[in-house]
Amino acid sequence: xxxxxxxxxxxxxxxxxxxxxxxxxxxxxxxxxxxxxxxxxxxxxxxxxxxxxxxxxxxxxxxxxxxxxxxxxxxxxxxxxxxxxxxxxxxxxxxxxxxxxxxxxxxxxxxxxxxxxxxxxxxxxxxxxxxxxxxxxxxxxxxxxxxxxxxxxxxxxxxxxxxxxxxxxxxxxxxxxxxxxxxxxxxxxxxxxxxxxxxxxxxxxxxxxxxxxxxxxxxxxxxxxxxxxxxxxxxxxxxxxxxxxxxxxxxxxxxxxxxxxxxxxxxxxxxxxxxxxxxxxxxxxxxxxxxxx
Length: 293
Known about the structure:
Blueprint: H1 3-8, H2 11-14, H3 16-27, H4 30-40, H5 60-69, H6 71-75, H7 80-94, H8 104-107, H9 114-122, H10 133-146, E1 151-157, E2 172-180, E3 185-189, E4 196-199, H11 207-215, E5 220-224, H12 234-242, E6 248-251, E7 264-266, E8 279-280, H13 283-286
Parallel strand pairs: 7-8
Antiparallel strand pairs: 1-2, 1-6, 2-3, 4-5, 6-7
């Protein structure tokens, strides 16, 4: 469906309940089951190192966000995980999420102050000013960096790479990886659904760990979840937004380049890199310890 058709579908913008109904319908289709199955069968991911590293930078937008919203105070004291959760909780409490939102880019074009513009556009506003998952991931990433937490936004997609089936473009979603220095590892946080996911022992997972656990049939739990302040569509969230999309992991070049396409792609072994402008990355590169520039 093109952006104009989405905009003309007023029901999608009427209320968060109307959008939740759309999510439930999408999560119950046979196609959704296909994507969930194909992501479980994705297989191994490359383990080498081509030398790619995400470039973390503290930019003007981070100081402006801190000054405008007092993010260090919102984060408070405690572990990095506790501080990051408080900021994600705060964002979820003040910004509506609508994955079909197509209007905010036209309101928020401009320089790298995009996260500040997006947040001002939606903060405390009505539902028709809701943000989609990409905007939510950008904003949370910038807010966490503003509070001194190292983080990168990531996109996940399932784009029908499996021979013999061609259902068209698969589900996609955007989340963030946040770095826990206490544990020296990344975890996944999802600001659109104010969510994070754990294994059977309560350990918070990153995307690579989540993909491995899903493929192996291990226990996975949604440890925290809020869909616009409700528990609606929890089953559809895990199958349709995360696990169903979790084949290809896309990363940007760095913090300063979020307005561009995510050109760096982590693909299963044997899946070709079809875009000439893209770069193949590996698990060790994606999960390397961050370094600020």
